[in-house]
Design brief:
Phosphorylase Kinase, domain 1; Transferase(Phosphotransferase), domain 1; 2 domains; 14 helices; about 35% helix; binds adenosine-5'-triphosphate; binds magnesium ion; membrane; cell membrane; PERK1-13-like; protein serine/threonine kinase activity; Ser/Thr_kinase_AS
């Protein structure tokens, strides 16, 4: 048997949950095996660190259960300590991420050059006979999803929420507008916003979706988790751009404002946060009364002007028409109160961007069409074990 099979669940078992890491009682793929792993000693290649498998196994106590931080669509994440004392998070990508080693290395190199106080840095990587691992700086205080939803927002007062929103907006603005080549995140969601001990936001996993070529079960799992964040043009044609990131960012702002989850998968699509919030936001932005939308957990303790700004940013970010969504730098300025909201709206009134255009184009993609696509898409994901990924992120263009 291929030793790497011991780390990865058999095809099809991932969503069923039966597979647990470490239950084989072994360290991991080929660790202490035939010596074929770990032949490469860690080295600094083009400014990024290339680790041997042994080094990462040592850092994580043999990828032990105790060190496990969590599990996402791409695989397991373990906490580790490097010999120099640096604390890291080691993400083991599931096998079947079909990208070749050279391509993988090139992408990793681009990502590892990106450093910003609101972006989680990639420290290095490891490729060992088919296994790919990514090593990130460790961020200590869980995720925005955890604080907002699992803990019901406790501890997230208004000023903390605003600080988190500004931080994640700055991180994304940097990826979109200051990096060369520019980077589209592709998987923006509250689970990918890590929180540090000062309750500052750190955007994680940028570029990762591009790095891994999804296999069937993987894409199902990932897309399920990311469902409520999908921009309409991405849902309908797989088209990705910075503006699809902006849409997903807008959904996170809605979560911060309302305290609600983006979608309840046990319910019908009509209950998506975006659909629920859109008309309420339009009304609230007109009459200045946010009672219906604001998180009851805040118990009325918020700054009205700041809340209006965040609500306006959310409303502008979730416009159907990608073109009419603001750029991340405009959102940063609006959230910080450094610009008039007219700048954000570019002449479009909140809630009025979805005029139906019978001649086609993105404006024609209205709420009904979006919902219909989402329903189809949801059904496809739910039904299909043989669902393949090409339409979603496999080969979509960045334009
Ligand atoms: N750099 C990090 N520092 C600390 N914890 C991390 C780090 N990266 C990931 N984690 C933890 O590991 C868990 C799993 O992360 P992972 O990125 O694999 O899954 P996800 O974010 O839920 O989904 P996706 O695979 O789409 O990113 C996270 O919820 C987080 O708690
Ligand atoms: Mg993640």
């Amino acid at each position: 048997m291929d030793p790497k099979m011991k780390l990865h669940p058999p095809a099809g078992s991932f969503m069923g949950g039966g597979w647990a890491p470490g239950t084989s009682g072994e360290f991991g793929p080929g660790y202490n095996n035939s010596g074929q792993h770990g032949a490469i000693q860690s080295q600094n290649v083009g400014g990024m660190y290339q680790f041997s498998y042994e080094e990462l196994a040592n850092a994580t106590n043999g990828f032990s259960q105790v060190n496990m931080l969590g599990q996402g669509g791409y695989g397991l994440v373990h906490k580790g300590v490097l010999p120099d004392g640096r604390v890291v998070a080691v993400k083991s990508l599931k096998s079947g991420s079909g990208q070749g080693e050279r391509e993988f290395q090139a992408e990793v190199e681009i990502i590892s050059r990106v450093h910003h106080r609101h972006l989680v840095s990639l420290v290095g990587y490891c490729i060992a006979t088919g296994n790919k691992l990514l090593v990130y700086e460790f961020v200590a205080n869980k995720t925005l999803e955890f604080h907002l939803h699992d803990k019901g927002g406790a501890g997230l007062d208004w000023s903390t929420r605003l600080r988190i929103a500004v931080g994640m907006a700055k991180g994304l603005a940097y990826l979109h507008e200051d990096c060369s080549p520019r980077i589209i995140h592709r998987d923006i969601k509250a689970a990918n916003i890590l929180i540090d001990n000062n309750f500052e936001a750190m955007v994680a996993d940028f570029g990762l979706a591009k790095l891994t070529t999804d296999n069937n079960t993987h894409v199902s799992t990932r897309v399920m988790g990311t469902f409520g964040y999908l921009a309409p043009e991405y849902a309908s044609s797989g088209k990705l751009s910075e503006k699809s990131d902006v849409f997903s960012f807008g959904v996170m702002l809605l979560e911060i404002v309302t305290g609600r989850r983006p979608i309840d998968l046990t319910n019908t699509m009509e209950d998506s946060l975006v659909d629920w919030a859109r008309p309420l936001l339009t009304k609230a932005l007109e009459d200045g009364n946010f009672e219906e939308v604001v998180d009851p957990g805040l118990e009325g303790r918020f700054d009205h002007d700041e809340l209006s700004r965040m609500a306006a940013c959310a409303a502008a970010s979730i416009r159907h028409s990608a073109r009419k969504r603001p750029k991340m730098s405009q959102i940063v300025r609006a959230l910080e109160g450094d610009s008039s909201l007219d700048d954000l709206n570019d002449g479009v009134k909140p809630g009025q961007s979805t005029t139906f255009n019978p001649n086609g184009g993105s404006d024609a993609y209205d709420t009904r069409a979006y919902n219909a696509d989402m329903m189809k898409f949801k059904k496809m994901v739910m039904d299909s074990e043989e669902f393949t990924s090409n339409e979603y992120g496999g080969d979509s263009s960045d334009k």
